[in-house]
Here is the input.
Amino acid sequence: MKLAKKIATLSVASGLAVGAFATATPIFAHGYVDGPKSRALLCKEGVNTNCGSVVYEPQSLEYLKGFPQAGPADGKIASANGQFGGLLDQQSSTRWAKTEITSGPLLMDWTYTAPHSTDGWSYYMTKTGWDPNSPLTRSQFEEIAVIDHDGSKASTNPDHVITVPANRNGYHVILAVWDIADTVNAFYNVIDVNVNGAGEVTEAPNAPKALVASELNSGAVELTWEDSNSDRADVSYAVSRDGVQVGKSNGTSFVDLEATPGAAYTYTVTASDTSGNQSATKATVVVQVSQSNDADVTAPTVPANLHTMKVSTSGINLMWNESFDASADVTYKVYRDGYLRATTKMTMWQDTAVSAGNNYRYSVSAVDPSGNESTSSNVLGVTTPNAPTPAPIDSGNWNSLAAYVKGDTVTFNGVTYRAVQSHKGVGDPNWITALSLWAPVNSPAPVEPAPTPVPNPAPAPAGTWSSTGSYTVGDRVTSGGVDYQAVQSHTGVGDPNWIYAPSLWKKI
Here is the structure.
């Protein structure tokens, strides 16, 4: 994959990194706190369990902004008002994994998967004496930091140093709120921490050294540097392009997938620790990206693992693994039964145009800006459940105000009646005798009338009454020279006596 072409090398004072290889892999979503790791991110990593579908979307905990005056309801703060089934709102002293921290300076490290125009960030922490075994509420939190922003994208101000109050000890919850400038929403992340007394002031980490830039055959730029802080596990790196941070790494490498062919860039890499200390110097390298005249003919990777998250009589929630492309811009096409049904930037989609008891077959492909389309994902067959059959009410006395379903049975004055059609009473004591609504049980069960020879009889909201017409409350008709007004909406079945039913028509 890599070209044997080294662009530049510059050695500066030493720098480290601990951990895994990191790249600027795009995910079309929003953002989450990854240092200390949020409750949702630890779900994605499998440290927290039984979290529901948030494991696929830790970056999407989004709801109305304005906290604490507005925003998620009490008891639903962790889930951003019930997102992903609300499982994140479960709360006890032992339910969630905790990150060990100390009081004093604390680096809040964000990952922005889709940087938004930003108003700012607010940080809250549970008060001393809070109850860790009760749902999270506003009254349990107090504000500990506010970071203002100028409305530009969040990538220009990604990380913040806040102060954990000295009187915090043991299990606490930090709430991070990211307010978006150009929408009505904000992102809500809770972080479970265990505070162990006062933190020690540490020396700043060493700066990275031997920074090398190499161009990949996709046109992306790979940066690598040497480990010079091997004795520390609290060091991470911020990578900037022309003074604007474009990513982070917990290791000694980073790949910029958004480099433009023919452009010249200055990259810098800065080391920082969890207390907010930054290296005194930065590693710097100047890059001239090759001008490529080759047309993009490479399709994105296949969106694998197409699966369902929820199936009901009225909707099917689909989800799949992310596809990757050198353009860092992937659109997904969702097919149902061989026909294109939707396009989306997300790795999930809900089909609401389904009906109960039917079978559907889905597949997904990925498309890049050049029009290259991947091969199809796995074909997923889904069957919606059958619509439930409501059980009839078979006991109790008739209530003139109750709602009934066709087939329900009731008792009135010692006589059992069966509902002829579904309806809701309005308190009229005569409705039990209306043949359009009730029939004695000893009478033969009502038989569905034969279809009228007139196809699709049109509603008759005015004019002469039709025994097979469809009417809405308030419609006026004439029958036998008398004017009537509809009391409730209904469709006639051909019975000429329904015009006299007080449950359906009143004289005017």
Remarks:
- Residues 1-29, 451-461 have pLDDT under 50 and may be disordered.
- The CA atoms of residues 464 and 480 lie 9 Å apart.
- The two ends are 84 Å apart (CA to CA).
- Helices lie at 39-44.
